[in-house]
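Supplementary Methods, section 5.1.

A reviewer requested that the exact input to the structure prediction be made available. We therefore reproduce it here, unchanged from the version used in the analyses.
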Amino acid sequence: MKSYLITDPEYYNDITSFTDYLTDIYQNKKPSFAVFRDKTGKNFEETAKNFVTISKYFSIEKILINKDIKLAKKLGADGVHLTSSQFDKIVFAKKLGLFVIISTHTLKEALLAQRLKADAITYSPVFYTPNKGKPKGEKKLKEVIKSIDIKCFALGGITGQKEIEICKKCGCYGFASIRYFVN
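The structure derived from this sequence is encoded token-by-token as follows.
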């Protein structure tokens, strides 16, 4: 099962602490995929460039940038993780040769992502996650996985081995998390 790190500026303050944060995760948790997501950073492009460099050094399988298709291409990232409001950007990102993951929250969105030829989806929130609404749960996760032919990463509330095992049993391609990697 693939593991997918989503970065969060709550766990770093500047480039130096970001480098330490990322190096620690890569050495100890060894994610297969990683996305640079920073909704508040002032030095987004500089930090994203550092992210790509460190991720390549650690041979991360897929290195992605959140939302910014042009920056992902410019920095030589493997792909982009689009938000659930960016379905109209999937075709453009694919034309640029990028690997595309898009956030989904319903079966309808998952099927749309597949129809538009996204490479993978995140489906969330599967488990309880602060400020993310009611969890979808195992039953809905299984329903989505059985209904699509693209890769599905479970997301939301995955903080330990218990949740990872549930995702495996549901047939997920992988799991995505912030907190699992920093715990």
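The mean pLDDT is 96. These observations are discussed further in the main text.
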